[in-house]
Specification:
Elements (H helix, E strand, L loop, with lengths): L2 H12 L6 E6 L11 H6 L3 E6 L3 H10 L7 E4 L2 E2 L5 E7 L9 E2 L4 E2 L3 E14 L1 H6 L7 E4 L5 H10 L6 E5 L17 H13 L2 E5 L3 E6 L2
Parallel strand pairs: 1-2, 1-9, 2-3, 4-8, 9-10
Antiparallel strand pairs: 5-6, 5-8, 7-8, 10-12, 11-12
Length: 218
């Protein structure tokens, strides 16, 4: 089953009896490209959300694509980082890669991702604790797609003792050979450690083809 379809089915099942659902999406891009929450937000009026995208151009597209639903959405043009400071957001310069991809980490792999030290956008960075100051809702679902930075964000989430019903994040590459610049946490050990941590926190963690779907046990 496709990762996105699995996430959507799980989301609908978990929140079938909720009168309100609040989700946070870190790395929302333009709100359309390979986006697991796009259809959910547009078709389910119970959902309100905080959508986070650091790239300025994609951020403007994000707001435009959700213009009809902005009354229940919060948009933040920031990167979630370890520090509250401006950071370099590296742009994917691979001609075969997807436009609009960026990363806080320099990386280069065989999957049409090539982030160059010379190609970057300076963006505002805030840590997860700072993000929580901007949110007045309990987070029911957390979706993360940050091109290699996902594990670092999950660690911040856990440190802040935030345990959403659903966490859906991009899995790290399986080996260091998939990241020739060596700046991304990779490997089955890294993934296994995170899965073990989440299971200790009473999550059912399913490793899918490209993502990890974690559901809090009730």
């Amino acid at each position: 089953m496709n990762d996105e379809i699995k996430f959507i089915e799980t989301f609908k099942q978990r929140f079938s009896n909720n009168t309100h659902i609040f989700l946070v999406q870190i790395g929302a891009n333009d709100g359309v490209m390979a986006d697991p929450v796009h259809t959910l937000i547009k078709t389910d009026s119970r959902i309100s959300a905080c959508l986070i995208e650091p790239q300025k151009e994609e951020f403007e597209k994000l707001k435009e694509n959700y213009k009809s639903y902005e009354n229940r959405l919060m948009f933040l043009n920031v990167a979630i980082t370890s520090e509250n400071s401006d950071v370099k957001l590296y742009k994917n310069i691979d001609p075969l890669g997807s436009s609009g991809h960026s990363s806080l980490l320099l990386r280069q792999n065989e999957f049409a991702s090539h982030f160059s030290e010379e190609a970057y956008e300076l963006v505002k960075g805030i840590n997860f604790s700072k993000l929580l100051e901007k949110i007045s809702h309990t987070i029911n679902a957390l979706i993360i797609d940050t091109e290699g930075y996902d594990i670092k964000i999950i660690n911040q989430v856990i440190q802040n003792k935030i345990y959403p019903d659903i966490i859906f994040f991009e899995r790290p590459y399986p080996s260091s050979g998939n990241d020739r610049l060596g700046n991304v946490e990779t490997g089955n050990e890294v993934l296994g450690n995170m899965v073990n941590t989440l299971e200790e926190l009473d999550y059912d963690a399913q490793v899918l083809s490209g993502n990890v779907l974690c559901v809090k046990n009730t």
